[in-house]
Amino acid sequence: MVKQTKFYDPTTAPYLDPKKDRRVVFITGGNSGIGWYTCLHLYLHGYIVYVGGRTESKVVKAIDEIKAEARERQNRHFGELNYVYIDLTDLSTVPKAVETFGSKENKLDVLINNAGIMGVPYEETKDGYEIQYQVNFVSHLLLTLKMIPYLQAAAHPRIVNLASVGHNSEFKYFHPKNHYLKHFPNSVYTWIRYGKSKCSQIQSAKALAKHFPEILSVSVHPGIIVGTELYDHWRNIPGLKFVGNGVIGTMGKLMGVSNEEGSLATLKAAMDPELTLKDNGNYYVTGGILGSPSSVASKQSNVEETWKWNIEQLDKRGYHFDF
């Protein structure tokens, strides 16, 4: 198991009374895995949390379970948990989710781009992107840009992009127009596509730090967490699921952390008062420890090209921005 002595302790973060200090969070994929525990701790700390997801019944069920767990853990001022519909495979739902949010709030303190998929078969979305690239990165980029006015209205806004150590599988820089990587065998190239999407999340945080220096934007690698739904595809492939489960189980025993431990890097980025704008663009690894992403993710020309191309592509699809 990963050593935990240096992991961020969320109990050291301030506990808020939402009636006196209303701080608002929007998170994607908060109904399962590390997102569930991220929501739990934010709720325990008094944050007003909007959980974006595709299936209302799943999110509402998760909200009820989080509230029950919170009552078991403490008796303080809890925050709020609210559902907002968003489908990251459909870009058109993103502005609508922001509109729904804006009908209820006039500012956003923390945006957590948490949801993701991993290692899935090749597929293109209705918007014309490879599915991992859109779900993990492009939809979150659009969400972030649409949320900028609400973030700018907050006193100390933050953006947290969920990346992964898997970003290293983008072993060289592939121009974003070549993100499809539809090659044989899929079992190899799906991981390169996944790495490309997560590398882009790191580059996005760095670009946001440059273009919006008043907003703290960081990326995080939560850790090797085998208890999430990310591995479901590999657990259920006919003829391979027993091997897949064995490999995944071994990874968990040797390197893995729990879902709750996996939420700690995100929680540090979202709540730690010691983080300031001097930390803009940083990358944090398991437990919230400062890390160093790959040279592909860090190279400034790559960061700028990823930003430029994706903004242009969103503009071509009718999503315009005033910057």
Automatic annotation (TrEMBL):
InterPro entries: NAD(P)-bd_dom_sf, SDR_fam. SUPFAM superfamilies: NAD(P)-binding Rossmann-fold domains. GO terms for molecular function: oxidoreductase activity. Coiled coil: none annotated. Gene3D superfamilies: NAD(P)-binding Rossmann-like Domain (3.40.50.720). Keywords: NADP, Oxidoreductase. Belongs to the short-chain dehydrogenases/reductases (SDR) family. This is Uncharacterized protein.
